Amino acid sequence: MQFRTFVSSLALAFGMAALPVAAQQFPAKPVRLITPFPAGAGPEIVARLVGDKLSKYWGQTFIVENRPGGNGVIAVDAVKNSAADGYTLVQMDDAHMSVLGHLISKLSYNTAKDFEPVASLFRTYFFVVVPIDSPWKTVGDIIATAKVKGTGLSYGSWGIGSPGHIGMAVFESVTGTQMNHVPYKDLAQLYQSVGNNDVGWAFGTAASAGPMYRAKKVKFVAIAAPQRLAGYTDVPTVAEAGGPKDFEVTGWVGFLAPRGVPRAAVARINQDVAKALSEPDVRERLATFTFVPTAMTPEEMGKQMVIDDRKYAEVVKRAKITLD
Q1: What is the CATH number of the domain that holds 65?
Q2: Of the candidates 104, 155, 107, which has an alpha carbon nearest to the alpha carbon of residue 316?
């Protein structure tokens, strides 16, 4: 009897050892995140901050791997065909999730079919950025100039279909204006050009335009948010600055995984990312970028993605924006 019990226990032990890692308690090995953002970019810094917390919670290494370029497609494609076990994640913003599919007819991935939402990180709002010596003191001044024929007013963005470009398309629509779009290869080049008066203005966050703002090369005349932001309470909202009411330019960032990832893994990651976002040092660092910690459930993320997809489809069609 004892011998039989021993043999049964031994068989059970070998059976457990043979189970795939994904079926055991998550996480049982290092987790890898691939980000489309370059080293030092605001979203990438947040990914590493949160990743450090997750490493401590789990006793497993959280690896952040940068794969910038290709409008984020390089990073997304690297994860799309990875094992759906929760050990490979991708960082995306709402442009990667809900905009590119409307700009590129043969995009190599379909967010809704190829990925599952796992955890959201933060939401950010964009400032109206103008040269430090610009005569414009309000958004109303910009609108008035744009409505004068022949002024050739231009604005910059960090690429066709970027949040800055999409935000401008909406701005033109609601204000009845039309301006010249000048896309740049990267954020640094864009805000240097704003500071040099090469373009009239742009949208930017405290993270992206902050260095030029602190160097007094550019100024913020408004924030495209529902209310003024902490740390920048002297900067009015777009509505307060003579612009359209309830006008917002915002974006959000989160972690996604290949479709089919175990629900237990998703629940664990989501729970612990929310925990990390509640830590005082993480919230303090996000505040320096004016990033608002935003912990959504996977279900809430999915609903937001559907809302965004419908909204951006309309904007892209109306403005005739394409990357093909």
Answers
A1: 3.40.190.150
A2: 104
